[in-house]
Write a structure and sequence with these properties.
By secondary structure, the chain is mainly alpha-helical. The chain folds into two domains: 50 residues, no CATH class; 108 residues, no CATH class. Helix 3 packs antiparallel against helix 5 and helix 4 packs across helix 5. The model has no long low-confidence stretch (mean pLDDT 86).
Length: 164
């Protein structure tokens, strides 16, 4: 592992320590440094993500865009689920949707699956090879590509700009 990644992991651990303790006394700084160093030395070999990629400000810009887009999709989905719950006929048409993934990294795939799960009305069920299975409360289309794009299309495009 490159030394810069280890240094960045240490700084992240130390910053997290400081944020959690809210104490800048010298005892706290020493304890935080020691614990962050030990944590970094023990666990940094398990992180296979190149942290230096995340220093790029363009990736941060796209991360902010992703968060805004995710919040907007959650708001829309909340209203959609509320409509379905409150409607007397309860118009649901549940089904499992098969989404072909184009994301390569495991971290990007995990964030995509978690984003889909946190959006009301959808739950990521499984990822097998390059296929993500999603349970959707209302399957609108019979065309596979159309509903796959509706669930993950824009999420995937933005995540590619962040992680690949």
């Amino acid at each position: 592992m490159r030394a810069i990644n280890v240094l960045i992991y240490f700084l992240i651990c130390f910053a997290t320590w400081l944020l959690l303790t809210h104490n800048l006394g010298w005892q706290n700084l020493v304890a935080g440094s020691v614990i962050s160093l030990l944590t970094t030395l023990v666990f940094s070999r398990y992180f296979n993500f190149d942290v230096t990629k995340m220093i790029n400000p363009v990736r941060w810009f796209w991360m902010i865009i992703y968060i805004i887009y995710f919040i907007w999709q959650c708001v829309k989905a909340n209203f959609d689920v509320a409509y379905r719950v409150l409607h007397p006929a309860m118009p649901i048409k549940p089904g499992i949707v098969r989404v072909n993934l184009t994301l390569q990294g495991s971290l990007a795939r995990t964030i995509l699956a978690n984003s889909i799960t946190m959006t009301p009305g959808t739950i990521a069920v499984d990822i097998i090879d390059d296929i993500l299975y999603v349970h959707w409360i209302y399957v609108r289309y019979l065309d596979h590509d159309r509903y796959a794009y509706r669930i993950s299309g824009k999420f995937e495009r933005i995540l590619k700009k962040i992680f690949e």
